[in-house]
Design goal:
Elements (H helix, E strand, L loop, with lengths): L1 E2 L6 E2 L3 H9 L4 E6 L5 H6 L6 E3 L6 E6 L6 E6 L2 E7 L13 E3 H5 L9 E5 L3 E4 L2 E4 L4 E8 L2 E10 L2 H7 L3 E3 L7
Parallel strand pairs: 7-13, 8-13
Antiparallel strand pairs: 1-2, 3-5, 3-10, 4-5, 6-7, 9-12, 10-11, 12-13, 13-14
Length: 180
């Protein structure tokens, strides 16, 4: 299920439409190789509908896009893989209404009152503005709490020249152990 970007209305996509969305990614998203995620974890978090393939011969992947109706991300927290809400879309929430946390704002203390905790977001691939690329170790994010709910925000930084040319984006995720 994806949300239409401006209206946030849900639409159901069949397998062919998911494959097309996967190929023509115009938003930000990550893919995690299916073989790296236990079956029990997929079942417990109802992730079966996120399984897709790039081609008939390729490995299955779990797709996490910022335009899913309920955007979530896999997160390593306290040595355990968890699924958390990706950003905030709720206008009545006090949390920032975005899916990103700029490293500059984090360093300047703008997130201090939210008591952010840095986490690792595993990813095999990522997509930014239609360009899919390999991710070797993952990305950094921060978790904040609102009441009993935990929310993850991807950390972003100014893009390298190469990344900006590749994706036409002036911001990029903070990668673990690599620079693109």
């Amino acid at each position: 299920m994806f949300c239409h970007h401006q209206e946030f209305r849900c639409i159901q996509l069949d397998k062919a439409e998911r494959a097309y969305q996967f190929e023509k990614c115009i938003m930000f998203g990550i893919a995690l190789l299916r073989r790296e995620v236990p079956d029990e974890f997929i079942a417990r978090h109802h992730l079966q509908g996120r399984i897709t393939r790039r081609t008939k011969e390729s490995d299955e992947e779990l797709l996490f896009l910022d335009q899913h109706c309920v955007p979530v991300l896999p997160v390593w927290l306290n040595g355990q893989l968890q699924i958390l809400a990706w950003g905030n879309r709720n206008p009545s929430s006090q949390l920032p209404r975005t899916g990103w946390c700029m490293t500059d704002s984090l360093k300047e203390g703008q997130w201090e009152s939210l008591q952010p905790v840095e986490v690792c977001i595993p990813a095999s691939y990522a997509c930014d503005r239609g360009v899919w690329y390999l991710v070797t170790e993952g990305m950094r994010g921060v978790i904040v709490k609102e009441r009993s709910r935990q929310v993850v925000y991807l950390l972003s930084q100014q893009a390298t020249h190469y990344y900006e040319v590749m994706t036409r984006n002036r911001r990029m995720p903070v990668f673990i152990g690599e620079t693109i």
